[in-house]
Amino acid sequence: MVKRSLRKILGAVLAAVFVLALSGCGKGGEEPGDGRLVLGFSQIGSESAWRIGNTKDIEEQAEAFGIGLMLENANQKQENQIAAIRRFIAYKVDVIAFSPVVEEGWDNVLLEAKEAGIPIILVDRDINTEHQGLTTCLIGADFYKEGVMAAEYLIRKADSMGLTQVNIVEIAGTANSTPMRQRQAGFMDTIKDDSRMRVLESIDGDFLKSRGAECMRYLLEKYGDSIQVVFSHNDEMTIGAIPEIEKAGFKPGNDMIIISIDGGQEAINVLKEGKINCVVECTPKLGKALMETAIKLKNGEAVEKLIHPAEQVFSDETDVSKIEPRGY
Ligand code: GYE
Fold first, then answer.
1. What architecture is domain 143-282?
2. What is the reported pLDDT for 26?
3. Among residues 37, 79, 185, 244, which one has the fewest Cβ atoms lying within 10 Å of its Cβ?
4. What is the Rg, in whole angstroms, of the alpha carbon atoms belonging to the chain?
C-alpha cells in the first residue's frame, strides 16, 4: 500500500517535472508544451552505442522540428515502458512513440492509449498482438534483411576460402525482441540450403557487451577450435566476445570469421584492425522520420505503415579504410 502510494506520488512529481520542462520552467498559466506538439517517447535503455545514438538522434530531431519531447529511459524493463506510456496518457501528450523491448505483452496499455485517442508510433522494434489498429506505423530497420545480408557475406567468404564445412556459433540479441527474431530468421533461411553450414549453438547474449564475453567464454570452452564463425546480433556483444577469443589463443578475423550487426564507430575501428570481417549496418537515425510522422498524425493525415531506412554492408571484401565516420 505504502509502496503504491509512494509510486503514485513519484509519478505525479515526474509529470509535474515534465510540465515545467515543457513550458519553459513554469512561466505560469501557459498550455503544457506552449502549444507545441508534445511527443512522449519510451526508450528501451542504454545497452549499446546504437541505442545511445538513437536517443541522441531523437533528441536532436525533436529540437530541430520544435517538438516537445518527453523522453523516458526504461533501463531494459518492459514494466518501466508500460508505466511510462501510462504517464504519457495521463499527461495527454499528442503522440506516443516507443521502442518495445520485447514483442509480447503490450495490449492492455495500448488499448488504454487508443481509448484516450492518442496515436502510437512504433520505433525500431515491432510488437505481436491480435488486436487491430493499436499502432499507426513502424519506423525501423529491416532486421530480416540484415540477417540475410550477414549470411550472404558468409557464403561468399566460405566460397573464397574454399571451405567445405562451416561451423557457426550465434550470439543472439534479447530473447523475443524483433531484431533477435528477425536477424536469426533471415540468417538461418539464407544458409539452410548450403550443406556446408552448421550452427553449433545459438545463445542469448541480450545485446550486452558483458553477456557477449560470457557467451563467448562458454562457447570456446565447449567447442574450442571447431568454431569457424561467430555471428553476433550486435556490435556490443561482438566487442565483448573478441578479447575472449584472443585469450583462448585464436586470432579473431583470421582463425574465426567474425560477423556483427549495427556498424557503430567502435566496431568499424575493429573491422579496420582486421578483427571483425563483416559488419551489417543498422542505422539508429530514425528521429527525422519519427518527427515527420508525429506531425502528420497530429494533423490527422495518413502515414506510411512501414518505414525502413536504407542500409549497407561493411566488410573485408572492400577497402575499409574508406568508411566515413559513423556518428554513433
Ligand atoms: O542492434 C542493438 C540494440 O533494436 C536495432 O538494439 C536495435 C538493436 C541494436 O541494443 O545494438
1. 3-Layer(aba) Sandwich (3.40)
2. 34
3. 79
4. 22
Residue 23: phi, psi to the nearest 5?
A: -100, 20
Our CA angle for 135, 304, 285, nearest 5°, is 90
Domain covering 36-141+284-311: architecture: 3-Layer(aba) Sandwich (3.40)
Nine cell digits for residue 99: 521502442
- CA 101–ligand 1 middle distance (angstroms): 10
pLDDT averaged over every residue in the chain: 92
Q: At what angle do helices 49-65 and 287-298 cross, to 10 degrees?
A: 40
Same fold, 36-141+284-311 and 143-282: yes
Is the confidence at residue 154, as pLDDT, over 70? yes
What pLDDT is recorded for position 20? 41
| Cβ 126 under 6 angstroms from ligand 1 | no
Candidates 185, 181, 187; CA nearest to 155 is 187
CA of 302 from ligand 1 middle (Å) equals 28
- In short, whether 48's Cβ falls inside 6 Å of ligand 1 is yes
The band of 35, judged by pLDDT with boundaries at 50, 70 and 90, is confident
- Which residue's CA is the closest to the ligand 1 atom numbered 8? 179
Q: ∠88-90-92 over CA atoms, to 5°?
A: 70
For cell 531494459, the residue is 76
Ranges of each domain in the chain: 36-141+284-311, 143-282
